[in-house]
């Protein structure tokens, strides 16, 4: 199947009729899907569906950043979302997904973590970002990252009395946000470079580059995947394509 996919792509044709630089449709963001979370969002991207929930708690800061809050990101690839996913502890794909999404948020300083400090060296807010894959039809990284940014940008603080959170009760104070990083991925299959791979295309990927881009077009994080090396020209082409497509995704964030 991989060789057939590459042969078809050589003619510039994709199985679903899209152009090489065209996203699957629709791309829909739903906010506030959980009444119990401090922030939440669901992204429907073609047939891929990803939900993200944000929970906040208080705890001690890390010793090397006593005046900063903490971000912890995890991903769950539920068996109901794909026959390729199994029950049990997070596998390699889940760990990589969480790390790539986390890196785009963390390295861009999307969250003003200093404003999450309650008492330096003693008490800070911890932001738990949980990714749930509801249906895998390809391009989980971009869909999960989009859901994460949407959920964080609409997160509010829970009520805090002393050092205790009153779970289920929310303030109107939003999570302090510096900017909105948009993550976009370009992949190489054979001699073609494209975006938003389908499941069949993902099985034929030689290499991929994921970038997190700010409103100003600055790249804050980058991740290379796949087993095949890339030339400098290919890297430049893939980065340019990812930046271009990130602008389309940014228009969806409200």
Highlighted features:
Ribosomal Protein S5, domain 2, four-stranded antiparallel sheet, alpha+beta, 5 helices, 254 residues
List the helices and strands and how they pair.
Blueprint: H1 2-10, E1 27-31, E2 39-45, E3 48-59, E4 70-77, H2 92-107, E5 117-119, E6 123-135, H3 140-153, E7 156-161, E8 164-174, E9 182-189, E10 192-195, H4 199-202, E11 207-213, E12 219-225, H5 232-250
Parallel strand pairs: 4-6
Antiparallel strand pairs: 1-2, 2-3, 3-6, 5-6, 7-8, 9-10, 9-11, 11-12
Description:
- With 254 residues, the protein is of the alpha+beta class.
- The chain has one domain: GHMP Kinase, N-terminal domain (Ribosomal Protein S5, domain 2, 2-Layer Sandwich).
- 24% of the residues lie in helices and 36% in strands.
- It has helices spanning 2-10, 92-107, 140-153, 199-202, 232-250, and strands at 27-31, 39-45, 48-59, 70-77, 117-119, 123-135, 156-161, 164-174, 182-189, 192-195, 207-213, 219-225.
- The strands form three sheets. Strands 1, 2, 3, 4, 5 and 6 form a six-stranded mixed β-sheet that branches. Strands 10-9-11-12 form a four-stranded antiparallel β-sheet, sandwiched between helices.
- The longest helix has 19 residues, at 232-250.
- It is elongated.
**The CATH topology, please?**
Ribosomal Protein S5, domain 2
Mean pLDDT: 94
Corresponding CATH superfamily: GHMP Kinase, N-terminal domain
- Tell me the name of the CATH class: Alpha Beta
């Amino acid at each position: 199947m991989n060789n057939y996919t590459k042969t078809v792509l050589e003619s510039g044709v994709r199985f679903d009729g899209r152009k090489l630089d065209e996203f699957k449709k629709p791309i829909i963001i739903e906010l506030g899907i959980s009444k119990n979370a401090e922030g939440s969002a669901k992204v429907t991207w073609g047939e891929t569906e990803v939900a993200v929930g944000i929970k906040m708690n208080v705890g001690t800061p890390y010793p090397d950043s006593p005046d900063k809050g903490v971000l912890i990101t995890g991903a769950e690839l539920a068996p109901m979302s794909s026959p390729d996913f199994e029950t049990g502890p997070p596998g390699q794909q889940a760990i990589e997904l969480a790390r790539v999404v986390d890196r785009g948020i963390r390295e861009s300083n999307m969250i003003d973590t200093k404003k999450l400090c309650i008492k330096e060296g003693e008490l800070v807010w911890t932001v738990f970002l949980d990714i749930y894959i509801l249906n895998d039809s390809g391009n989980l990284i971009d869909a999960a990252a989009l859901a994460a940014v949407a959920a964080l940008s609409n997160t509010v603080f829970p009520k805090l009395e002393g050092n205790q959170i009153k779970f289920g009760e929310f303030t109107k104070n939003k999570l302090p946000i510096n900017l909105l990083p948009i993550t976009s991925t370009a992949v190489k299959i054979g001699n073609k470079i494209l975006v938003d791979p389908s499941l069949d295309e993902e099985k034929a990927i030689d290499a991929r580059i994921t970038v997190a881009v700010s409103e100003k077009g600055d790249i804050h994080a980058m991740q290379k995947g796949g087993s095949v090396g890339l030339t400098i020209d290919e890297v430049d082409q893939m980065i340019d394509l990812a930046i271009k497509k990130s602008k389309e995704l940014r228009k969806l964030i409200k």
